[in-house]
Amino acid sequence: MPAQQKKLIFCIAGVLSFACALGTAAAIGSQVWVRGTILCTTGALLVNASGPELHKFIGDIQYGLFSGQRVRQCGLGGRPLQFSFFPDLLRTIPASIHVSVILFCAVLIVFALVGAGFFMFNAFGSPYETLHGPVGLYLWSFIACSCGCLIMILFSSEVKIHHLSEKIANFKEGTFTFKTHTEQFANSFWTILVCSLVHFLNALLIRFAGFEFPFTKSKDSGTITGAVDLMY
Q: What pLDDT, on the 0 to 100 scale, is given for residue 212?
């Protein structure tokens, strides 16, 4: 492939990596990773609510990685409440999984920026044979894509398996019991999926530029290197 086309491909991949870093940073700061509704089962059972009457006992909940908001409905109107994961919910949620999600988000940002820098370096500079060249580009893209997948797996397990929404809804609730009525992932969560796909696409762009993986040295280059070593 001509050098100009390779530069163009590396520039596109670098811009995509930088955009993923910005998107991940915005997703971390967002309060909307999950949206849902919560049902006040205690209040609904007390009045034997059914059908349209249940809407008086269904509140809203939304949260991100650091904070969120819930609106509890127990038949007397909505009562909003702001909450923070640190330190309010630290003993209630699966803290190890939640902290791991935040750490992998930080790692994803770092390697997305590193990948963007090396893509631009390979486009406009003189790439080295090792980490600055195609081997490094594959490595940074693979690490970033893996981090994105781990974020989605860990956060999904926290929400679905560990019932994160119900734990948040029942935080400091002694009288009423809440149950998840509906639950869905919001745009910030799907941003991580898009970033993972973009890093996978970057690996395909590297291959499209003509760099194969795994890399093997030709016999001729080894012979030439050996001859040069003998000269010295």
A: 57
What H or E segment, with its residue span, contains residue 112? helix 95-124
φ/ψ region of 75 (left if φ > 0, alpha if ψ in -120 to 50, else beta) reads left
How far is Cα 51 from Cα 72, in angstroms, rounded to an integer? 19
Q: Please tell me whether the peptide bond between 134 and the residue prior to it is cis, using omega within 30 degrees of 0.
A: no
- What confidence tens digit (pLDDT) does each residue in 162-173 have? 999 999 998 888
- Backbone phi and psi for residue 184, each to the nearest 5 degrees, phi listed first: -150, 150
Please report, as a single letter, which amino acid is at residue 7.
Answer: K
Look at residues 11, 6, 1, 2 and name the one whose alpha carbon lies nearest to residue 118.
11
User: Would you say the pTM of this structure is higher than 0.85?
Assistant: no
Residue 31 and residue 68 in contact, taking contact as beta carbons nearer than 8 Å: yes
Structural domains of the chain ordered from first start: 3-209 (1.20.140)
Token pair of 85 as six digits: 């994961």
Give the DSSP letter string of 176-199: --EEEEEEEE-HHHHHHHHHHHHH
* Secondary structure E strands in 74-146: 78-84
Place of tokens 């995509």: 16
The single-letter code of the amino acid at 140 is: W
